[in-house]
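Take a look at my tokenised protein here and describe the backbone shape.
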Amino acid sequence: MAAHLEEEEQVEALKRWWKANGGSIIAGIILGLAAIFGWNTWNNYQQNQAQQSSDLYTQLLDAVGKKQYDLADGIAERLTGEYGGTVYADFARLFQARVALDQGQPEEAKKSLGMLLTQSKDSDIRHIARLRQARVLLSLGNPQDGLEVLTSKEIGDPGKFAGQYEEFKGDMYVALGREDEAARAYHKAIELRRDHAILDAKLNDLGEEASDLP
């Protein structure tokens, strides 16, 4: 009898414990399952986004290669609009700028590159956009604006692009008639291991001695 009463007491204690704690346990299980389901759903979504944006980018490359500019622009708009969080959206803006230049629309190119400078999270993409924007400004007859783009405090460490920055600064200085500064920029670009043949030619145009670096 004592054993039977002890079992009943244990059952009653278990009932009381479940009544007090069972709800939170069930909620925890539900939350855990939801988290697992949500994580899997998010991963699947990310993979789908990456695949779809990659496919669109391939189509963009094909359209640009075939000079189907209207089609290329439409694909680029889809990439930047629907897949703005992917690197392919950045690439699409670079191609929009290229297409605009091919069509003789430098102002449109400048607009696309300017959006990259403010929206891209990739530092390399921002460097490329800044260098190309400087080139566009030079082509528009605004070398001073181009120089300001190349010397902006927002650049930070140019890293592997340092040589290009110096070469492009030299081009801006030449356009501004500041030949001494242009020569210094070209020499610095050579020290940073840029293409010596091109830079030597630019120095020769300034009456400077070509580089003797290997």
Remarks:
- Residues 48-128 form one domain.
